[in-house]
Amino acid sequence: MIVAMAQNGTIGKDNDLLFHLSGDLKRFKTITTGHTIIMGRKTLLSLPKWPLPNRRHIVISSDPNAEFEGCETVNSIEEAIAKVDGEEEAFVIGGGSIYEQFYPLSSKLYLTTVHQNFEGDTYFNIFNEDDWIVESREDLFDEKNNFNYSYINLSRKK
């Protein structure tokens, strides 16, 4: 699972990201390239261009007739999990309800936290740091947006 969130758990507004950190976008690309990414329909449609290069896309949609160019469409998280069976790592990239469904099943979390509150309509309030062990952390400052943020890689406690 990979997610960028504000200090108050907000991850999106009006089907868009809250902030555009070039370093975080590069990190997302580095981590997910060569792997499968799993997302909801709205997250796919929020991407500026899709499919993203060098990644297999699995889109979860409640519409059994939904088709998206360059993507595999499934109707449940169970179907998505079956499609990635045997893969070393696949990444859930959103949105809010997809994160909620996959959260208890995820063993790794690649988290970007912006140390500032943002207003939004989509949240990652399910995150509980007591569920995780910090594997690495990097604290940074974004001069363009004038805020502090952190990259935190976590593994689920056994």
UniProtKB/TrEMBL annotation:
CDD domains from the entry? DHFR
Stretches assigned to the DHFR domain: 1-156
PROSITE patterns reported for this sequence: DHFR_2
Substrates-to-products reaction catalysed: (6S)-5,6,7,8-tetrahydrofolate + NADP(+) = 7,8-dihydrofolate + NADPH + H(+)
Is Oxidoreductase there in the keyword field? yes
Matching Gene3D superfamilies, A to Z? Answer: Dihydrofolate Reductase, subunit A
A single GO cellular-component term on record = cytosol
EC assignment: 1.5.1.3
Query: Which Pfam family is one of this chain's hits?
Result: DHFR_1
Pathway participation = Cofactor biosynthesis; tetrahydrofolate biosynthesis; 5,6,7,8-tetrahydrofolate from 7,8-dihydrofolate: step 1/1
Q: Which UniProt keywords apply?
A: NADP, One-carbon metabolism, Oxidoreductase
Any one Gene Ontology molecular-function term assigned to this protein's record: dihydrofolate reductase activity
Which GO biological process categories is it annotated with? dihydrofolate metabolic process; folic acid metabolic process; one-carbon metabolic process; tetrahydrofolate biosynthetic process
DNA repair keyword on record: no
What family, per the record?
A: Belongs to the dihydrofolate reductase family.
Q: What does this protein do?
A: Key enzyme in folate metabolism. Catalyzes an essential reaction for de novo glycine and purine synthesis, and for DNA precursor synthesis.
The molecule here is called Dihydrofolate reductase
